[in-house]
Amino acid sequence: RALFYLLLCIPWSSSCPPSCQCTERAGAKAVLCSSRRLEEIPKGIPRDAVFLKLDANSITRIPSNAFGHLSRLEELDLSRNAIEKIDRAAFRGVAAGLRTLDLSSNRIRNVPKEALLALNAKLRLADNPWHCECALQELLWEARLDPDSLQDITCHTAPRQEYVGKPLLQVLDAGVNFCSVRQRTMDVVMLVAMFGWFAMVVAYVICYVRHNRDDARRHRDYLRSLPSSRGRAE
């Protein structure tokens, strides 16, 4: 019974996920979960964790609020996983304090830019099968990317085959603007929609005019079929 009460007195922050190792680094808690064959982010990560290593696992997705309870987190390593999907609110709760976020060597093709632009952290995004598009271009312009990893952000797929296999930075330096391509596409869609709407209006006007003309003709024929006033007088 004494042991039971002793366990109750231990703060939750001192717990550690069974698949991880928790240590102290200069008075800051480090949670080490590298190479543990994890397929998802483990439960029970201490709230006072400052360093969190989840690299070299098999994690495929970062769900919303995955780290929301880790308000003191400064460094997060998610490299060398199998991450394909990152939710928009994946890093909600750690945006203000996070200093580095490593997402390199995953399977990320695209990511909601809102998920990363809200961060003040230095980002590592190299060695992913990126689809080069406007969102990735905006991310490159607006996010705090690690300069040493910029050349390794490569176009795995792109709107044009000539960009495939090239570093995104090199493609952009050549004058390519993926956002202008999207804008032109939107302009074409709007033009087609406006043309369709105009064609519908014209068709309606033509049908309306024809309908009124037919009504007028039927009305004239009806009036002609009526006996004249002179014939009624006789």
From TrEMBL:
Record InterPro entries: Leu-rich_rpt, Leu-rich_rpt_typical-subtyp, LRR_dom_sf, LRR_TM_domain-containing, LRRNT
Superkingdom of origin organism: Eukaryota
Family, as annotated: Belongs to the LRRC3 family.
Secretion signal span: 1-15
Any one annotated GO CC term: plasma membrane
Membrane-protein topology: Single-pass membrane protein
TM regions (residue ranges): 188-209
Subcellular location: Membrane
Keyword flag Protein biosynthesis: no
Protein name: Leucine-rich repeat-containing protein 3
The organism's taxonomic lineage, starting at the top: Eukaryota, Metazoa, Chordata, Craniata, Vertebrata
Segments forming domain LRRNT: 15-51
Keywords from the named record: Leucine-rich repeat, Membrane, Repeat, Signal, Transmembrane, Transmembrane helix
Keyword 4Fe-4S carried by entry: no
